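Regression report. Comparing outputs from two consecutive submissions.

Submission 1:
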Amino acid sequence: MSVFAKGEKCELRVREESERELRIYTDAIMRGDTTKYLFTGSTPMRWIDSAAVWKKEREAGDVLFGIWVESSTYKEWATAHQFVGICGLHSHRDIYKSWELRILIFDKDAIGKGIGFEACSLMVDYAFNRLNAHRVWLGVNADNELAINCYKKVGFKEEGRLRDEIFYHGKYVDAVRMGILQNEWGVHVEA
């Protein structure tokens, strides 16, 4: 697997859609360790179901990466490299030069270690400096304060809310829309 982008805490690799990669992802999703705030709810799935979704996204022109970490920045017992999440640029609108950023750290031990921040930063940098995007946006569950703080740290700004847009754990919550423009990138990014 070749590295596409590398930071200090993680590296982005093009998703290979191998059975191994899909099984790791699907098993983590099924455990539900970090999927509490997902927009899509939770439905039982098999690794071949995940494969179909990833294939559909790739065929739609989405840019898909796996998030990998080295054991020295992650945990002592990890293999040399550990697959801990996925991220991508979706819903490209060429006329507006706009992309939707999606990220999921599915390994609970990787949460709160700056891996999500670094992966988001690598993705935004790629969108603006390689794809010539004008705008990158995302949606986030209003109850997911950890993610919202991460996105703000990257430089995203809240643009609006969709009231009671998401139903999870027996209640409706707002979806927060956030965005960053090309001329804002790098201006207020914190390390």
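Submission 2:
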Amino acid sequence: MIGEASTTRRMPSLAAACDTTLPFTTGGDAEWFAQTSEYNNDGDAAQSGAIVTNESTWLEATVEGPGTVSFDYKLSSATGDSLNFFIDDQYQWGVSSGGWSQSGPWTVTGSGTHTLKWTYSKDSGGSSAGEAWVDNVQWSGDVPDSGGDWSQIEYTPDQVEGRLYDPSGRRIAKDVDGAITKYLYDGSHCIAEYDANDVLLRKYIYGPGVDQPICMIDVADSNAAYYYHFDALG
């Protein structure tokens, strides 16, 4: 039987849904999520997770001050629901109903890292229905540098033909922040790793099956042996 082709639209990140590059986290009794059904700007927005009475869900962004922030919001809720905004855990603003509107600008004073937080909550008098949305977050200050401690990894080509892989499709080497590791194979199995000066770093011992490593011997660490353990599914 020939099935029908289908396409899936990838949902934006929370930052993209809020039209910003700020790093977001979310939590509480449910998580906020990016969606494309309800929005005020650019085809997407962040929506609160599904909660019931006496529960709350929060959306949080980290900024580098000083600066000002404004945002668009919408609330589809029942009596007892509220959307509140905090700067560094200090209450700034709240609303219990309303269509798409803008809030702010709010001023964040002082240099360094600050926290912007939106909390949607339901008290004992509310029903389980209702959601909140945040969109078009505009921040005038800096965005925290979240990539300073990351490693840069490149798969390096051989020096003769400039290939990333050998004719059998096996990776030749990689470069992690300038530290090069070369790979030696027996068939499809990587049996040894060398540094840029062809000094042996690690070697591997395999069982009779396909992709069945038994142990790795770390030559650079006084031949310390590390054994692989498998569950019932291998």
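Expected: both submissions complete independently.
Actual: both completed, but the second showed a warning that disappeared on reload.
Relevant detail on submission 2: The first helix runs from residue 14 to 17.
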